[in-house]
Amino acid sequence: MSTLRVAWTLERAALRGQLEYRLNFIVSTFMGIAYQGSGFAFIYVVLHSFHTIGGWDFSDLAFLYSLRLLAHACCYLPFNQIDFLDVTIREGKFDRYLVRPMNPLLQLMTNRFQINAVGDVLTASALFVYAASIAHVDFSPLHVVYLVLAVIGGALAEAGFILAVSSLAFRFLETWAAAFLVDNIYLMFGSYPIRVFGATTAWIMTWIIPVAFVAYIPASVLLERTNGLHIANVVAYGAPVIGLLWFFAGYQVWRLQVRHYQSSGS
């Protein structure tokens, strides 16, 4: 608990540091809103012409998109600095994390606050409120509990895979392209019903890259569309647990790869 308190204190200090630059804070926040909002606007334009995608109408896709963005925001808010691990390693800054009495991953996460994460959170919250008002979702107590767990599980699934990919920087030093590719895969495939991309892609986006567990599968459960899923219902209802397992796997990759760290000597 003391470690978590220290991490929370460092995170708040990093945020306060970024708030010192008010114009940058405002511009970065609006950039996050514009970037994430443009994806939703694209769905609106497409559905205005074609009405449904894979049998999902606008209200269903709005809920799916907002759920994915909500999970992404919950992932990106604490884990945004993982994307910059390769830069940290090349500049020799990772050395300081190894000599301090705190988990190196927590130190990396709280080293700096990425302002556009605020835009992601604001956009995700606004879109989810809107989507929930038009989607046919029964917000019973059981469904609300599943929703909360699904968002957490989706965030952990995304964080776990990104952590595993970024951890390769301990061996290869430069992983920006791979991390950028993964981020775009989650954005492009995670915002639509996975099955429309074909059976092979659906399998890959479920068991190789856990895109489906971030939003598509939880949204299918909440929208009562499980009959169209490509996995068993018991797995769909256990999606939050799958997300936790993915994060555990990603953290084990981190622990394995960090052993190969060699200081740049700078």
Q: pLDDT below 50 for ≥5 consecutive residues: which ranges?
A: none
**Cα-to-Cα separation, first versus last residue:** 34 Å
Approximately how much beta-strand content do the residues carry? under 5%
The helix content is: over 70%
Give the tally of β-strands.
0
Overall domain count: 1
Keywords:
266 residues, mainly alpha, 14 helices
Walkthrough of the structure:
With 266 residues, the protein is an all-alpha fold. 72% of the residues lie in helices and 0% in strands. It has 14 helices and no strands. The protein has one domain. α2 packs antiparallel against α3 and α3 runs antiparallel to α7 (116-134). The mean pLDDT is 88.
Strand-helix topology:
Elements: H1 2-19, H2 22-50, H3 58-79, H4 85-90, H5 95-98, H6 104-109, H7 116-134, H8 141-166, H9 169-172, H10 176-190, H11 199-208, H12 216-222, H13 233-237, H14 239-258
Helix pairs in contact: 2-3, 2-7, 3-7, 3-8, 3-12, 8-10, 8-14
Could you give a short description of this structure?
This protein is mainly α and 266 residues long. Helices cover 72% and strands 0% of the residues.
